């Protein structure tokens, strides 16, 4: 197959691929982006794509530089690419291109003399140039819209290529490198049809979103070769050869039609949708309603119609007259004439009893303490509070416990208005029991604080 036939075959293949892809796009349902989340990961997007392209190859680059031939030709090139989108603005792409690169030397001061050995023209068959490059989306002219549709990108990477130059000299000599690269010691079995080497591709481009599945790309790539024999001559031994590829192509997104393409998703719009998710708003409203219901229940629990201090929900005797003493269920307490008489006979110097291993005052001691506070505040004078303990535990612990009991009584008196200088405390531990410590009844009596006038 000659080169012209190959070009026709490739062109037909591109047309066929484009038609199949367009038919597939027309039959599928448009993707929706409403379900994507900011931190949902790449799994919620389409990230793979494959593309075909065609364009022109030339032995020069846009930034200039020295060349071995002063006139260059434009030749057909074509390529394929496979891309993996890793984020909204970055992807990795495996790209390959084939074609022909050619150029010639045109004399600047008249025609070249016949019979000279100056290189007149070259033609290099590019069997392949394959590279892995990073693609960075640098912006969009409609980035404020919900969905981007036009984007600009830059690329850079490293690749491996195979090529065979053919040079024609002014004296008619033709040197074709193809099949002439003989191996060491002239071994013909190591002869290679193509020279192989590394190159660096650097490019820019713009892409247009045709549909949910198809992009139209325009790009330009400068390829810097790590050799000076791409055009078959070493005219500039200290420089490296280069060539460029300007192309147009179609790119087809792969994956489920229910997912959007990651490269066209606007992250700002996704974040807005995530924050304004109607499901989230509904959950917030439902939570507000639940809080309101709880607050109403709390208010109902606090409601006390008769003002007796017991909430209506627990008041077993609603409508109690104001000022009536009630119990925990809201019912009036029975009048205790005997208790009133007993309270009036309290002197304030009765002993104060405590529970086992405790220095907490009992409520039954409050009348005695209140009376003692009244006597000290009205009549002055000083008292000593003697704390005691029963015989359980160690003597050291019981001594401390007896001091704590005496201090509890002093704290109550001081809080009721007695001057602290009127009250002294003393811990006596297990000393001076008033009953036998051999029985529980006796030990109960020994857990006490006694008040003595000074």
TrEMBL record:
InterPro entries on file: Bact_OuterMem_StrucFunc (IPR050330), OMP/PagP_B-barrel (IPR011250), OMP_bac (IPR006664), OmpA-like (IPR006665), OmpA-like_sf (IPR036737), TSP_type-3_rpt (IPR028974)
UniProt xrefs under Pfam families: OmpA
Positions of the OmpA-like domain: 341-454
Presence of the UniProt keyword Nucleus in the record: no
CDD domains: OmpA_C-like
Signal sequence annotation: 1-26
Subcellular location: Cell outer membrane
Transport listed as a keyword: yes
Keywords: Cell outer membrane, Ion transport, Membrane, Porin, Signal, Transmembrane, Transmembrane beta strand, Transport
PROSITE patterns: OMPA_2
Topology of the protein relative to the lipid bilayer: Multi-pass membrane protein
Protein name, as recorded: OmpA family protein
Highest classification ranks of the organism: Bacteria, Pseudomonadati, Bacteroidota, Sphingobacteriia, Sphingobacteriales
